[in-house]
Amino acid sequence: VKSTSIQSVSSIEELKSLVNPSDEMFGKVEVLIFKLAVCLEHSHKSDTSSKKAIIYIDDEPVNVLVESSGNNVIAKVRDMRYYVAILRLCLDAMKRRYAQYLDGAIELATVLKPEFVIAETDILRSMNLDTGTTSRKHAHNAMMRLDATTYKVLSAPKAFMDEFKIKEYFAKVSHFDVRNYAKTIDDRVAYQIELSNSQIQSLFEECKNQDSSLLLQVDHRIYNERNPLAFIFTFFSSSMKLGSINRYTFQSLKDNIAPNMQLREFKIQLSALLFKHRLEQRDDSGNKIDYIEWTADKKVIKIINAKFNGIEVSIPDGETIFVQRDTNYERMTMNKRISSRRINNRISPQSQAACVSKNDE
């Protein structure tokens, strides 16, 4: 990464802060990157620089080679927080360019330039994180890992290749390229980011079509989520339709959020996560009941209701996992605090039989 000072992409583009404190903090993510991100490392101690991984598209296994360049290691799943924030900030910058273009101030070619200058503090502020030295260091390390990590699709159904305009196997897919990390001409530390052509097209379409979105909206609660499994679960659940009840087995849920983890380890980690976020249960008389059951070795949960980051999870029988996103979610930022309304129609074992057919997967 170069170290000379960074200038704005066009003479008319000011290097002012893109972040308004009153802005909503939902992030954006490209669907292809969203599908591939589950390949990343869960452990913060991992030092892997290359690995083969499997993701599942329409229940079909897709082989992916994840590689990192230079002396870097493969990005961690929690590093995706910064990718989500970066794409959101690039979209904000593109909207400003587009407005200038409509006013006749700049050419279309300038709107479509793949370079963006994003201040380091803007990345952190857009995530509602503090901007101190430690936060900056963590952010920089994550940015360097994301910059170095690329995905290569080794085998995939033709429909998948066509949908994401991947013309050939071994085509590299990257998060972004960090072209520079230095002080700007107005003395702020910033990243000069370059996006791919497909990402630029996605952002441009987003600016033109205010109603429909090519980008997936990701729940802002991932920014503060420290548990890697809870993070990727929250990230994945962003694609779920609000209010719909989704049915999984341990295997199918693992395939979606942690495909490269051993099933036994996944069951143990998920059980610990759900137990930590268990919901208080009451019977018809309003008395508290202990609605939790474990396997004989006390490591895998068989029956539980839990909730975290606006995701309701219910395991009524040791095999089926019901997942529902918070239907009455309302985001408010007040004094830097985020709160959400409670779910009114909570999924529970008693209500599931009528809602979900038993034979679908």
Task: Outline the structure in words.
- The structure is a single chain.
- By secondary structure, the protein is of the alpha+beta class.
- The protein is built from eleven helices and 18 strands.
- It has helices at residues 31-36, 80-102, 108-111, 120-126, 133-148, 158-163, 197-208, 228-237, 250-257, 263-276, 349-355, and strands at 27-29, 50-57, 60-68, 115-119, 149-155, 172-174, 177-183, 189-194, 216-218, 245-249, 281-282, 288-289, 293-294, 301-308, 311-315, 320-325, 332-334, 337-339.
- A five-stranded antiparallel β-sheet has the order 10-16-15-14-13, sandwiched between helices. It has a four-stranded antiparallel β-sheet with strand order 2-3-5-6.
- The longest helix is centred in the N-terminal third of the chain and has 23 residues, at 80-102.
- It is globular and about 65 Å long.
- The termini are far apart.
- Mean pLDDT is 83; it is low at 329-361.
Could you describe the largest sheet, including whether it forms a barrel? 5 strands, antiparallel
Q: How much of the polypeptide forms β-strand, as a percent range?
A: 15-25%
Radius of gyration (CA) equals: 22 Å
Q: What is the string of helix and strand elements?
A: EHEEHHEHHEHEEEHEHEHHEEEEEEEEH
Stretches where pLDDT is under 50 for at least 5 consecutive residues are 329-361
Kindly report the average pLDDT value: 83
SS field, number of helical segments? 11
Strand element count? 18
Shape: globular
Secondary-structure-based class equals alpha+beta
- Helix residue percentage: 25-40%
Strand order of the largest sheet: 10-16-15-14-13
Oligomer: single chain
Separation of the first and last Cα atoms: 47 Å
